Amino acid sequence: MGGGGSALRVCADHRGGINWLSLSPDGQRLLTGSEDGTARLWSTADGTCCALLQGHESYVTFCQLEDEAAFTCSADCTIRKWDVLTGQCLQVFRGHTSIVNRILVADNQLFSSSYDRTACAWSMDRGQVAQEFRGHRNCVLTLAYTGAPWVEEAMAGGLLVTGSTDGTAKVWQVASGCCHQTLRGHTGAVLCLVLDAPGRTAFTGSTDATVRAWDILSGQQLRVFREHQGSVICLELVNRHVYSGSADRTVKCWLADTGERVRTFTAHRHSVSALKYHAGTLFTGSGDARARAFDAQSGALRRVFRGHAFVINCIQVHGQVLYTASHDGALRLWDVRGLPPPRAAAPKRSLSRLFSNKVGCAAAPLPPA
Fold first, then answer.
1. Which residues of 317-349 are buried (b: 16+ CB within 10 A; e: fewer)?
2. Dihedral-angle region of residue 239 (phi above 0 means left; psi in -120 to 50 means alpha; beta otherwise)
3. Reported pTM
């Protein structure tokens, strides 16, 4: 296992903790949203700050970066759309009456969730609420959307799935705003969710220490994943495997179709706060202020990335670089070259082919793992 080494670059321009980090679909830019009420755009080519996005009147809770526009939401109850080239605010979306927790841009639609117990779909042209999804009895935290062909056949506009601190998830018909199903079974807040759209399945993680699988059309609970000893904070769904990060300091890998636990990733000294699977490697961020790289197939710890002072809230991987954003206000860039190739049954490919060369951060490689 390699040591932490030093970061390729430390970007400490924010004056407050970074709550979220988003990578553009084309991989050319990063967007960070901060407690200081601003967002910043960064170039993945050299890690420089391209634009400062100012205008929110309170902290930025979440952000999403598209190729041509950036979106941020805030405790000031608004969502903002920004020009990625100039940093100019293009639109302000007003309508929520409390903190906006999450936003989601999908199928040319903008969705949001809020502490005001609602989720919304917005008209991109007018900046107004086009549909309100009302029915949760408490804060709406997390969002997922599917517009898969099988959905469109029955319900034009797709399906929105929301998770709430009321212990339920709900499936909504976007076009009508009607609740299609309420997914009941958790005994604690639903903190995270991922969709397997082709399989018509939602996976939810909760403070009740379980992950649950649901049929989103019928609302039936399909299976319960029960081995965690603390809240399930984050989920990743990759190659028919569900990865769950927990307050019990572990990540568990489950077979999505059966619920069988196939491995546990240990070594964290605090809650696991972020997950990202990339090219056979599972990267994690933790409340112990460290990021880690594990061989996803064997569960072996390959590298520890040390340097942050507080919890890592979000991670992204692009090319040969790992990006970590922390409550300490810093964005750090790490070299992930030298990690052993994944032990997968798939045809062997070299790291030079697994990783693209779009990122041009020149620096000495970290010590080999």
1. bbbbbbbbbbbbbbbbbbbbebbbebeeeeeee
2. left
3. 0.89
Q: In the sheet where 60-65 sits, what is the strand order?
A: 60-65, 69-74, 78-83, 89-94
What the block records as the tokens of 37 is 């009420």
Write the pLDDT tens digit of every residue in 182-204.
999 999 999 999 999 887 999 99
CA angle at 157 for the pair 124 and 74, rounded to the nearest 5°: 40
> How far apart are the C-alpha atoms of 144 and 71, rounded to whole Å?
16
Q: 9 vs 302, 324, 363, CA distance in Å?
A: 21, 11, 9
338-355 pLDDT tens trace: 886 655 444 333 333 222
Distance in angstroms (rounded) separating the CA atoms of residues 200 and 356: 32
Average pLDDT rounded to a whole number, residues 225-231: 97
CA distance 185 to 141: 17
Coil, helix or strand for 230? coil
Q: What is the pLDDT of residues 137-165, one digit of tens each?
A: 999 999 999 987 777 665 778 999 999 99
Measured in whole angstroms, the distance separating CA 263 from the mean position of its chain's CA atoms is 22
Q: Which of 293, 287, 268 is nearest to 328 (CA)?
A: 287
Residue 287 phi, psi (nearest 5) = -70, -10
Looking at per-residue confidence, does 1 or 254 come out higher?
254
Please state, in angstroms and rounded to a whole number, the distance separating the CA atoms of residues 11 and 312. 14
Q: Quick one: which of 257, 261, 264 has its CA closest to 284? A: 264
Nearest residue to 312 (alpha-carbon basis) of 359, 278, 270: 270
- Tell which residue, 70, 72, 71, has the closest CA to residue 59: 72
Token digits for 71? 């979106």
The predicted structure's pLDDT at residue 301: 96
Pairing status of strand 129-134 against strand 118-122:
antiparallel
Distance between CA atoms of residues 291 and 9, nearest Å: 15
Mean pLDDT of the 39-45 span: 94
Helix (H) / strand (E) element for 153: namely helix 149-154
